[in-house]
Amino acid sequence: MPEMEFVTISSGDLTARINPFGAELWSLTDAHGREFMTNADPAFWSGHAPVLFPIVGGLAANRYRVDGGEYELARHGFARRSAFTLVEAGEDHARFRLRDSEETRAVYPFAFELEMAFALEGTTLHTSATVRNPGDVPLPFSFGYHPAFAWPLPGGTAKADHVIAFASPEPQVVRRLDLATGLMLPGGEPTPVDGHHLALDSALFEADAMIWTDLASRSLTFGTPGGAQLAIAFPDMPMLGVWQKPGAPFLCIEPWQGHADPVGFSGDFRKKPGIVNLEPGAARTFSMDVTVLPAD
């Protein structure tokens, strides 16, 4: 990872630090200095909040086919390992941009622009990702957020008391990945969600991420009843991954548009489940708001 100067923004109530390499949120602290993001302990996982583009998850053998050509892309795509350009910054906001280049076109043969914007308003961090198609053919892509929040959240409540509360009941099956290939398994398993509520336990993640491919909710809270909580809204994304390395002091809550290749998928990339085909000249925005809710 190249050395790049971090960008710090603040609302007074919250402070965020963003690494231009990957346009990645590294830290979110309150006015008391309490950290709501992962400590990125490399014993578990050194990521913070990578941006997933132009794919979410993995491809079969890391390869895909589109418009008669075949290309190779690593898991979650290249945005998280790309240097974004800082195009605007103020006390409480910053905006970063990634455009196609000779290097990206070798693995993803499309013109694109990905803009990541961050803004703090009181106790809320607003994040938006805007994908634009400056080319002359439809742009196929997926996009996802991958933030790792502290688990337990600061405030002294026990890890075992943390729950995810979905805005709507989520009775559908939970999808899983093949541990050997990282591809989406067919079918699913009975959900551990009880109505709106998911009681969190590291044992849930021994089979890797839990994935919802048709989520009813577009918001949720994470934390402890009566204790500190995060309210997370993702109005533009219909899928969700929840993941951790079992026993790690973080929980990833990941709104997605798209997911890993299904086991056995060998079709054109444009027809993969979850792919957006963005028309020339068009733009698509994916937003995520994180609000720190204080303890009662």
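Next protein, fold it too.
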Amino acid sequence: MDIIGTSDAAGTAELVKDSTDQAFMADVIEASREVPVLVDFWAPWCGPCKTLGPMIERAVTSKAGKVKLVKINIDENPGVAGQLGVRSIPAVFAFQGGQPVDGFMGALPEGQINQFIDKLLSGTDDGKAISEAIAQADAMLAAEDIGGAGQLYAAVIQHDPAQVAAIAGLARCYLAGGDVERAREALAMAPEDKRDDPAMASVLKAIEMMADAPAPDEFAAAIERVEAAPEDYAARFDLAEKLVAAGRNKAAVDQLLTILSADLGWEDGKARAKLLEVFEAAGPKDPVTIEGRRRLSSLLFA
């Protein structure tokens, strides 16, 4: 019995381990080139972390080596958490191929944790048809086919009126067309108990950031300043803010990453903070966020 017990502990240790900022490159970045790695940012004082921890460990262990879990105490290791924009815990990031590919915040029910891991491993879950339809609509919206995306989101909502990802997507279609009021009306369709969903909060953040849309002449002047002095990062930051207010997140991300590629700590982290706000407003599954996080990760962990 002692031998069996030792073997189980060793097996679990291979799949679940504590790590540090210093070991992050080896334990997460490099390890995720072999199998997906989940990173659980936690702290001893965090109540929800104590609930999530055992559940996510069981879920990872049940996958028999197809995925690993790395746990990082942010009180002792605040560096990587800060670089990735962790603002509340528990926060879980999924890394694959050396890059962050997905994530969630808060203590999810165990069933949802398993669904998250299954989706990471297979690209599907129990709501395959709806997920595929939403993914298609997301892609259409990213390609600026606003009408097609809106119709597909609406079809999903008709099938499942509580599908907040589709409701948030439809609201984003209205935002892309500059119609903030109809975006708010779309969000109002969500059931009361789902209005604090991250997808909904993300759109509300986008609405907040679009409150001060620049006039065309202000836009033109900001672009001219950057073209005249490419290394004037204050002017480039100003242009990024105007792009965000106009709902042009991809262009804003490009401007902010240009600043960060030259100076990661520019203005005491001002550019990085704004970049993380854009990611929050765009949402974790938006191509702008996914690609932006990959590019940011490349700068941070090069």
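About the second fold: Strands lie at 16-18, 37-42, 68-73, 91-96, 99-105.
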